[in-house]
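Handout, section B. The chain below has 480 residues.
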Amino acid sequence: MIMLLPVLFLAGCSDSIVDLAPGETPLALAVDHQSLELNVASMSKNAVTFTWTSGTNKGTNCALSYIFQMDRQGNNFAGGYTADLGKRIYSLSFTHLQMNELLLNTFGAGIKEQVNLEARIVAIPADESVEEQTAGVTALAYITFKPLPLKLYMFGSATPGGWDLNAMTEMNSVANAPGNFVWTGTLTAGEFKFMTGTTDYIPSYNRDPENVGKLLYRENYDQPDEKFVIDGYGGYRITVDLVKMTISISQETGPRFNNIYFVGSFTGWSFVKMRKDPTNPFIFKHAGVFEWNGGGEFKFATADGIWDNMYHPSVANAPYTHTAVTFTSPNDNKWVLKESECGKPYKLYLDITETKEKMVMTPFVPFENLWMVGDATPGGWSISDGTALTRDSDYIFTWTGTLNQGEIKITCDKQDDWMGAWFMPYEDSEGPSGETQMMTFVDKKNDPSQGGVDRKWKITSAGIYTITVDQLNETITFEK
């Protein structure tokens, strides 16, 4: 487990007052909670705060440094917890989670065990002629709680990984909500439960048969192994709260799969994640130079490394121009490129809209020129004055110059009616990251359904930039 550091508070005094610790102020230690049952539902909240006075430097004008110690009662501070705090620190706080981790990991406490402690603060003068001072508190009693898992996995026949411990589906943790997890994706008819690790079948979180929407924690094999049931194939959203021990399962109306993978001889039969179209979550894209390697076959997977539930052509040995798609073909049909068709770039997309599935693959003819337009560019919003990028190769274009604060998009054909071919950001108002970013191709001339799409990059900091565009792989880099 990760030990979280306690919170230190700096008193609002000047260095001279704090370091000198004038007068004869006795060193004293206080605590706001001498006894407390730590609470898993309040993990991020303060549980215990220790405060102390400055102590005295006996009029020597020397600084005082502080060491905080906490140990089990009667151990005479021979072990336990020690924090060398330095100067100017007069308070030390522990959240419920921090104190619980400290008791479990440092003091070896068990779950729901009361740990009896004592604490002290030691003030060490910089002048050796002044003696150290010590103040303490005793009779501290804190009760631990069972820590929540940092990861949670879905496990069962309804999930993409089935009953394989090595292929369990990891859920996403919810930011700023310890013990909360969410997952959206496709499930099949079957059962599942939740696992906290990938090496054993227990512990697990199971269905509470007595209370709908509630979880039970299963610690040993003697306990009932109740599972959640999915009645039919489809998209689902699962939310889990391990603090309240609740679960919510709802069906989604979006695409049945969140990710699609291109797999075939061109990838050495490894799984390459495709890009989801930002304007249509049912469409996934892939591009590249398809080099002949003795095969030429490909199909589409719905989970990384899983050979079930795939998209295939409706016929065997389908040419790349074949658009009809079937799901889970019993004959393992594949698309096939001939050797004479390889060695050139292609772009393809797979539409997984149910009952309307199709695959469209076309040879890619690189644009000879690209221009930037927008109020961030030298030519502004005038297409005729668009700022030309320099063609470095068939696919790569670059430009270096000054960008203003404002917006940018890239035209491929300078159509006066603005209804031509464009490269746009993957998300509207996306700013430069300094790293390679995805962009998307919008062809308003040949696809009227995209006529209303208008996304721009947002430049928030003016300056000199080098822009690199890869029109085949549809990436862009802004380097300031």
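Note. Helices lie at 15-20, 96-106. Compare this with the example in section A.
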